Amino acid sequence: MLDPMPTMDRRFEPFVHLVDVTDTSVLVAWGGFFLARRHDGWLVVDDDDLGTARRRRGGTIGAASPPYGLGLVEVLDVRGDVVASAKAAGVNHTWVEGLEPDTEYRYRIVVDGRLWGEGELWDWQLDADGPTPSERTYDLRFRTHPAGDAPVPVAFLAFGDYGVGITNGEAGRRQQGVARTLEKLSASHPVRFLVGLGDNIYHGEEDALAQSGDEDDDWYLTYYEPYRYLIDHLPMYPTAGNHDGADEESSDDRAQLADNFHIDTRFGRRVAQGRASLDPGLFYALRVGGLVEMVCVDTSWGEEEGVHDFEDERAKRWLEEVLPPDGGSGPSPTWRIPFCHHPAYCAGPHHENMGAQIEHVVPLYRRSGVRLVLSGHEHNFQHGHVDGIDYIVSGAGGKLQEDPPFRWDDGGTTRWASEPHCLLVEVDRDRILVTPYGVTHKDDEPRPVRALDRDGRQIDARVVIQRSD
Fold first, then answer.
1. Domain span at residue 72?
2. What's the pLDDT band for 59 if we cut at 50, 70, 90?
3. Is residue 209 included in any domain, yes or no?
4. Which whole number is the average pLDDT over 319-348?
């Protein structure tokens, strides 16, 4: 049961999370946050201030959040008829099975007999220094993935290094501007899902946010609020960055990342099928029809400082299986697209090539016929081409590095841009088209970034990869 009717100084804000879809199922979750107004403005109520009784009435989100009540998710077809449903007792999420591939559906969430998220929503406004009533509502729809043998074109959006928090000064305004771009592109293109390229949440004295990321309230301004009108109808497929764990921070955020992205619930059953490896690291393969398979590669450190999870024997065996020689002996996708946080090849200026990845993982890309790899970490846009593979760095979803790169030869780099951005990736049988789009302001339309070559001349930012056979 939710908190009693909020006063003018306290509000419960409900959230809806379309966590995952497959060709025949959907994973839906719900949760929320308490917002409170103090003498110096609004704030998100800290997890530590909720207490046991308050937690039972709400204020948390994620796989392990205390239940809000008896949940029911109903999936409706285009006629409005309920075609599938599932109950959730003791948790705030559930899989709904028995759906048709590549089909549009709507859904609704009922908790203790009441529709979840049906009332007025409040969005956090930077110019108002807090939440205000919004005219927007949730878009509770989704499209299942195509069947594994269906050669259906696929479009998705990718972005990295975004988790600065929208109230964090200029960086926050960049994150909000890119989030607006993501929304507009998803409305104008047949986007099926989102891909996160790591650093989902930051921590450090240089950040005005100054939150570690290991509690739910840390994620309100960094993830749930900026992308609330995306993650209600598009699944987000994450990877882990150095700021999502203990690589460069005193606290390890991986448990919270696993909770908020429902890692065990969505990928645990794929471990037995050989489609994921979760101990150690975050490795999974996502088949979207017959054309595309996304492969998440964890490039962060494991338990030992400086040793990456992909160097663990269990992860190495899994990578060898999902990146087989010549694409494998059975039916294989037309395109395999690995994504990770740290780039294998990078022109800088802040980061260099990642030698361990080049040694252990890149040979698997080459033998399996990979043509495109996506990553973040460096806070700009880069396109490099090395030994027949295109490497794209997109680490400016909130962070931004304005100094130009200078290791052009090391990274095989052809173009770069110092603009906050996201990537629109459009895949069909014969080509992949990757277009980086910059910040979108209110009432404007998205525009591609302005890319430069190594001589500072403007160059088309789009990357076109043609099928070679």
1. 10-141
2. low
3. no
4. 91
